[in-house]
Amino acid sequence: MEATDCSPYIRPQRGMEPFVYLDAELFGLEQRRVLSSTWQYGCHVSDLDRPGSYVTFEIAGESLFAVKDPEGTIRTFYNVCMHRGHRLLDGSGVRPKLVCPYHLWTYRLDGRLDHAPHAQGRPGFDPGGICLTEVLTEDLWGFLFVNLDRDASPMDVTYPGVREALGEFLPSIERMRPLERRWFTAESNWKVAVENYNECYHCRSAHPSFSKGVVLPETYTIRPVGQSLQHRAESSPDQYYEIDYEASPHAADYRSFYLWPLFSFQVYPGPVLNTFCWRPASVDRTPFFREWFSLDGEDSPTVARVADEDARTTVAEDLALMRSVQCGLSSRGYRPGPLVIDPDMGLNSEHTVAAIKAWYQEAMGPSVQ
Predict the structure, then answer these.
(1) Mean pLDDT over all residues of the chain?
(2) Within a 10 A sphere around the Cβ of 154, how many other Cβ atoms?
(3) Radius of gyration (Cα) for the chain, nearest Å?
């Protein structure tokens, strides 16, 4: 794998103009140009544990569902009946077939139409040509991602080396199962949220629990690789929870793998696997969930303790920071300041904000240059 050219991210520059975080019409354009053409997290394979099991979720304003067929293949479809457009499914569950509640059109688990009441033999009715619209789906160590762009590059091209790095850093990742999901809402634009997540320049001042009880700040670096940002650090000598040093060769290390634009794997020392998934709702409101995992889904006091501490400290602190930034961006007195750039891409650097800016501008085109 060739090294990523980081030179565009470590040159002197300023942050993006305020309108890209404030313009409601631009948010609609982002849905089409960014969120509809990038890899987005749908669900975990353990949510689809038997044929007929399904999970619904929303991506870029579209309702989708993933379902497992009798052969064990997982597919994702737009959650809409091909007859008159009624929504097919809600929530999650298990069904032998997919039945639209409007007119009882019935689809097989592979998306093909199985039965349409009173339609057989009617003029213009050809059941063989009717199928739910499928969405690109990829499995990354049991995490299912989707892309609404049928011509999108595979994840291994977009995020080169991430699959291998995750497997090497956390060899048990395929056995990890979700323990709990916690929802939060950032009162900010989604780009404020992911920029905040991906720079640790503010960690010492704003996150004492994280920077004293989880990581050793002076060892923190973040490297762009493809359209991912890979965080790494050594564990703090003053860890606030117990680490199982025998669980992994990297049990004493911290890693995070942010996948542009709205998802991140995060592995606390321990190892404690957790994820971030942002689901933008409007220009200034970004719900997101933190999901916490354990080996084979077994109860873990350590995971519970870290999840509680994280919600009480780091997440609460970030919610306040993001709310303040969103307010400040709308001030008539604000002008984008220079990003603090460290060519070594260490702790006190905003080269990651520059990377997000570059990826965003590439996706959006001249409208935000």
Answers:
(1) 95
(2) 11
(3) 22
How far is 145 from 142, CA to CA, in rounded Å? 10
- Both tokens assigned to 35: 């969120």
**pLDDT per position as a tens digit, 207-225:** 999 999 999 999 999 999 9
The residue among 142 and 365 whose pLDDT is bigger is 142
Average pLDDT for 92-96? 97
Helix axes 351-364, 190-197, angle to 10 degrees: 150
Of 296, 295, 238, 302, nearest in space to 270 by CA: 302
SS3 letters for the chain? Answer: CCCCCCHHHCCCCECCCCHHHHCHHHHHHHHHHHHCCCCEEEEEHHHCCCCCEEEEEEECCEEEEEEECCCCCEEEEECCCCCCCCCCCCCEEECCCEECCCCCCEECCCCEEEECCCCCCCCCCCHHHCECCEEEEEEECCEEEEECCCCCCCHHHHCCCHHHHHHHHCCCHHHEEEEEEEEEEECCCHHHHHHHHCCCCCHHHHCHHHHHHCECHHHCEEEEECCEEEEEEEECCCCCCCCCCCCCCCCCEEEEEEECCCEEEEEECCCEEEEEEECCCECCEEEEEEEEEEECCCCCHHHHHHHHHHHHHHHHHHHHHHHHHHHHHCCCCCCCCECCCCCCCECCCCHHHHHHHHHHHHHHHHHHC
What does the pLDDT look like over 58-72, one tens digit per residue?
Answer: 999 999 999 999 999
Tokens of 69: 């067929």
CA distances from 223 to 1, 37, 73, 132, 140 (A): 15, 23, 35, 40, 20
Q: Has residue 2 got a pLDDT over 60? A: no
Distance separating alpha carbons of residues 41 and 46, to the nearest angstrom? 14
Strand pairing category for 40-44 and 143-147: antiparallel
